[in-house]
Amino acid sequence: MSDSVSSSKLPLPLDHFLCFAIYSANHSMNRAYKPFLADLNLTYPQYIVMVALWEKDGQTVKSLGETLFLASNTLTPLLKRLEKMGHVTRQRDPNDERQVVIYLTPQGQALEEKAINIPECILAATGLTPDNIEYLQAQLSHLRQNLEAATETNTHIET
Amino acid sequence: MSDSVSSSKLPLPLDHFLCFAIYSANHSMNRAYKPFLADLNLTYPQYIVMVALWEKDGQTVKSLGETLFLASNTLTPLLKRLEKMGHVTRQRDPNDERQVVIYLTPQGQALEEKAINIPECILAATGLTPDNIEYLQAQLSHLRQNLEAATETNTHIET
DNA sequence: TGCGATTAGATTGTGTACGATTTATTGTTG
DNA sequence: CAACAATAAATCGTACACAATCTAATCGCA
Predict the structure, then answer these.
(1) Chain A contacts of B10, Cβ < 8 Å?
(2) Beta A88-93 vs A96-104: how paired, if at all?
(3) How far is the CA of A20 from the C1' of C13 (A)?
């Protein structure tokens, strides 16, 4: 069955692309989070930034970027929106004026209470067992590390 | 070790969020594809649309959307860019003028040859065994289906 | 000390995503 | 067959992502 695809010369149909499985799972995860995050008036990327800050307050933009694999061109406008909403402050580090340190406001800290049971709601929506989830996470982390290693060293030899 | 997190009241640190594992794996996958897709002058979403069309030409926007889990507000501008690049044509179905059918041009068909070995390059970059990949795909597909089912029926009971 | 290199953020432009709305076409029902 | 509901795309506004570039601050080393 899996070797009788005749409508395409590609080795794999779209259904069997790992990249597409990740891509579409990511979209469905975003959609699953949306109603819960709407209560907090946050987008998903804003939410993971808040999660990172709830874990460790007072991080620089660079530090947040390393945690979340995002650069300043994504984080700066996002953090400005969080600042405008009153969840964080952005202030230059007096010891190194190049750096901007992000601090939670009391309001930003308080938001954690409203967000605290979202993960278990999502957990339920996944319909997976904790063992499955843990294994999936580990596999995806492993995959991410491999891809990053392969991408960094990739000088992309031209034909 | 995993039960000694004291800096957060959240049940899980960011490292253990499945959503984040998917989110960041998706980003790393995008970055891995980028150099290969740059040769084709395609973005990743444009690429998966082309893959869907190489698999089955002459699809409507709606049909493509169902395959890729994307709506017209995402697909319309993307397809217009593919049209401008000369890879596809967009034409109204004479039998139902509401529908727009997407056809590959000869140039769009020819592009498949240049794209045909990308999947194996990515496969190598993942550093995973075919068994691992197949299992990951299956798990992610299953997850997506569960999330969609849970999201659709989600009336999101208010407190 | 001073000047080039490095570093951290910010900015700009392009391209997704997607909620909400609009337009055009088709179906349906009295 | 006329009014209205349903459907398919397109449009609009907001918010990521990210390459490329710019600015300002710091570092390094002669």
Answers:
(1) 51, 54-55, 112, 115-116, 119
(2) antiparallel
(3) 27
Nucleotide nearest to B94 (CA to C1'): C25
Nucleotide nearest to B90 (CA to C1'): D9
pTM higher than 0.85: yes
pLDDT tens for each residue of B3-57: 433 444 444 567 778 999 999 999 999 999 999 999 999 999 999 999 999 999 9
Confidence of residue A91 (pLDDT cuts 50, 70, 90): very high
Contact A121, A36 (CB under 8 A): yes
Compute CA distances B118 → A23, A128, B78, B130, B133, whole Å: 17, 32, 21, 16, 16
* Nearest-CA residue relative to C1' of D7: B98
Quote the CA–CA distance of B123 and A112 in Å, as a whole number: 39
Q: Of how many residues is chain B composed?
A: 159
Residue A127 Ramachandran class (φ > 0 left, ψ -120 to 50 alpha, else beta): left
Q: What is the secondary structure of B100-119 as a DSSP string?
A: EEEEE-HHHHHHHHHHTTHH
- Residue-wise pLDDT tens digits, A39-66: 999 999 999 999 999 999 999 999 999 9
